[in-house]
Amino acid sequence: QKEVEQNSGPLSVPEGAIASLNCTYSDRVSQSFFWYRQYSGKSPELIMFIYSNGDKEDGRFTAQLNKASQYVSLLIRDSQPSDSATYLCAVNMSGGRIPGTYKYIFGTGTRLKVLA
Amino acid sequence: NAGVTQTPKFRILKIGQSMTLQCAQDMNHNYMYWYRQDPGMGLKLIYYSVGAGITDKGEVPNGYNVSRSTTEDFPLRLELAAPSQTSVYFCASRQMEREKLFFGSGTQLSVL
Prior knowledge:
Order of helices and strands of chain B: EEEEEEEEEEE
Shape of chain A: globular
Mean pLDDT of chain B: 94
Radius of gyration of chain B: 13 Å
Low-confidence stretches of chain A: none
Largest interface: A-B, 29 and 27 residues
Radius of gyration of chain A: 14 Å
Helix content of chain B: under 10%
Distance between the termini of chain A: 37 Å
Structural class of chain B: mainly beta
Largest sheet of chain A: 6 strands, mixed
Oligomer: heterodimer
Helix content of chain A: under 10%
Strand content of chain A: over 45%
Low-confidence stretches of chain B: none
Structural class of chain A: mainly beta
Strand content of chain B: over 45%
Number of strands of chain B: 11
Order of helices and strands of chain A: EEEEEEEEEEE
Number of helices of chain B: 0
Largest sheet of chain B: 7 strands, mixed
């Protein structure tokens, strides 16, 4: 089982619709969860982070976390063509050689296409 | 602040050659990371460091080595380059466990 799993897509949605991106993770003790956006040929940039169960909203973006199900999602409301990018889920995981430290593991990313 | 600086931006290697990818940050971050990204894929963790002299393996460490003698620098060494190491390499840093990663602009490496 991969440590962080995402559907690679592409996920196509019409302009103005809600895009829903999903992510599951394997480490039950993970505490921090992140969504990064990456445009083609560019570096990833952070758009959302969430630490507690439930929803967290920031503008058109909502992150949802369910630790019992080990599931994180990102909703993008009123999707715009400029939202077309790859969305990477990342989880801060323990379990390395160095006690008390955390690896930052990414999923394979979901490619989102917003159709004008 | 320059943030995270990676050099070179592009490099072509022949099979069996060695090289060092440079990464430097000027934000006094404790954590530094090396990732590789193959076409159409996510980021895979190669190595990470939690401070000077302290490093650990990530998901795909084989064929690579790292060292961290200062807080600022975290070079990645490729020994005996292979075509499977053709990828885009990203260096990133952050201060604490719950903070975002700051990425460099990446190094595109081709091994032919």
